[in-house]
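With this grant's support, we have settled on a layout for protein records. An illustrative entry appears below exactly as we store it:
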Amino acid sequence: MGARSRRLAHQDRPILFGRLLASLILFLPLSVHRVQAETAPSPQLQSADPFVADLFHRSRSTGMVVVIVRDNQTWMQSYGQTYPGSHQKPSADSLVRLCSLSKIMTTDLLVKLVADGRVSLSDPLQKFAPRNVTVPDRTVRGLSGRPITLRDLATHTAGLPREIAYPAGDSGHFTFPDYSFRWQWLPGYRLRFLPGTAAHYSNIGFDLLADALSAAAGKPYPQLFADRIAKPLGLRDTTLSPTPGQCARLLAGVRNEGRCTDTTAAAGSGGMYSTANDMTRWLKYLLDLPGVPVHQDPAATATYVPSSELRWTQGIGRAGVPNGIGLGWVHINQPDDSTTIVEKTGGGAGFTTYIALIPARHIGIFVAATEDQHGGPEIFHGSNDLLTYLAGLTLVPGNSVELAADENRSDVQVGDATLHKHHKHAERPAPTRQIARTNVVGAGQ
């Protein structure tokens, strides 16, 4: 640099410093605001009680159990009755049907077997099919593409239907179609679309996935589940074959409860039973929180198929418009965003179930309710709003959340749901800003 250049640089230094100082002054309020937003204390978990009590009454359920975990904190509460007329609240050991939340246990096993080298997500289903069974690869329009893979099954992108058959008479929910029936049915089916090009919610796809994992592991699915999930985590009541004692604890609603029986036939898609106690451990396992001996591989809840890469999606948007599809999970909001919710809905046999996580905030919620009316979407959306509020991300206006905010103090008493009956018919003003709730697309659980 020449002498003239050095003099100009020296003369420009005060001007540049002044401009930098001005920029910092202009930026400072925004910066402070952001820091304050990020470091603001999250509401206490106990403040969820009035919100959930209101949600329970609006869902018109008979009974409900709720678990919320955040960091090293746990909040658990129950509402209503174990069955109509019992006048007894559900407990942490009340048995519930997980319904389609069973799917995220199936994909947890998938990820474990991938880590073991026993399977690959790109493995064709044909590799694990019974002898003399040909897995279809042709669509209803005669198009033929690549074979159905385990990844396709786990992301609802295999081109399979939602259901293929229902149990007859009083044989019990989640007892049909069994292994023999579905593998006899499969060769004659023509796919709805080429695998990997669209998403259509499929229960039969997850039962076939469970069959494939069982074949790869060389053991029955219930044993595989017990060895790799239930025993390591200490899940005492999460099972496909409840004992008479466990069945005596099963919650019941006013309709369509079904018999408490073995549900191995639908192990992969919806057959699991569990309790609030066990689901507390499951939430901690999913979120890498203290209190359990092992934790889930983060790959199990990652996004595997962005919705933008699919022609269409159907049946996976009951809790909000999906941004991406994971292995059994649905992702709401943008990936790698602190507001991202990873969720799974469930329903059937008289139950509505839901699990949702905000991994960036180490918080999750589990809800199970015996339904009187179709309260599923109410429970899903309300749980998302509550989870967002408890994560400290935003306050969604409305009677329930405002009441929860008012009671956000250390001496909050966890009360019986009957104390909040005056909220049953309260109107909820439309939120001015919502992070979690989006338009519902399609149907399916």
